[in-house]
Each structure stands twice: as structure tokens, then as C-alpha cells.
Give the backbone structure.
Amino acid sequence: YDLGVESDPIAAHLKLTRVIGTFNIVVAISCLAFQCPAVPCPYSLETIGTEFQGEFLSSKQCRAVQKNEADRGSSHSLGTLFGVLGLMKSSCPLLQGAFGMWNLLICGSCLIEGICMVRWQSELEEPLKASREHLKFRAGWYMEQHQISRNFQLKIWDTKRQVLLSKLCRLTERLNAIRAIWDDHRPAFTEEEEREYHWSSRVENLCLRS
């Protein structure tokens, strides 16, 4: 039985369980139906001193005949076939000792497993699917928020880098201006230049602290 034909493993396992359960039920019904007196015995009863052979025997007579036939090896093809299939007359067809009890337990466990699988699909599959979708949504939302936060952090770092470059250029220009003043290449700073310089420094410091 190929389980690969089903995309859903639960449906594939449930189909296999139904096949096994149906087979077990068919075997049990066949064993019970074989015990009916209307079903002929697969072995013939030969009457001593006559050529009479009978197949419609009671269950007790058929059990005795099939036991003797099994001991000495039967030449009856129908009896051999039924013996291979496990269809034999019995006083207790479903509980033939430990082996029959074991077969009954296997059949019952298969039926219980099928019931559990059906209840799994009807009662547990939908909540688990909802939980899986919720976890998938949370994972996607977390990654999205993390990406947004990371992009925002990168923008902050890029802004600070631009501010530092601007401050470096302004300080370089300030030092060049001071050197020019010392060399008497330009006049001293005016109040407006000093005010603009301090205002630019304050703005840059605020940008770097934020």
C-alpha cells in the first residue's frame, strides 16, 4: 500500500486503517458465517461398510473429521483450501485460545485507532491548524517588526554619520579660519559668525544625542 499518493499523512494513515479494519471485519464475518449448518463441511464423512459420503455434517461431526484429516493429511482440495484460509468449524470461532484472543485484540485495536483518527480530524485538527496559523503570523510579524526596527536603527546610524561628517567639515573650516586670522589673512570672527557657529554646534550635538 503506497502512502505516498496522499499529500496529507493523516488521510493516508486513515485510509490504510480503514482497509485493515474492513479486512478484519470481513474475516470475522466469514468465520462466523462458516459455522452455520447451511455451509457444508469441507471434509467428507465416509460411512464404514458403505460408499456413502456426506458433507452436510453437524459442527461437532465436522470438527472431529477435520481434526482427523489434519492429522493424517487430507486429499480433499476444498478442505485444504479452507484450512489455509483459516476457515474451520469451531465451537468458539472468535476465541480459539490465545491465538484467537490475540487476533481479536488486533482487530479491536485497529478499530479503536480508526475512531481516534476520525476524532483527531474532527476535534483536534482545526485547533492545531489555528494555532499553527497564529504562530506563523506571529513569526512573520516579529520578522517584519525586527526588519523595521533594524532599518530605523540603520537610518539613525547613517544620520549620525552624516552629522559627524558635517561637524568635521565645519571644524576644519573653523580651524582654517583661525589659522587665517593668526596669519592676518582675514579679520576676526564677527558676533553673527560666532552665533551661527555655536548654534550649528548645538544642533549637531542634539542630533548626536537623540
In short: The first helix runs from residue 9 to 34.
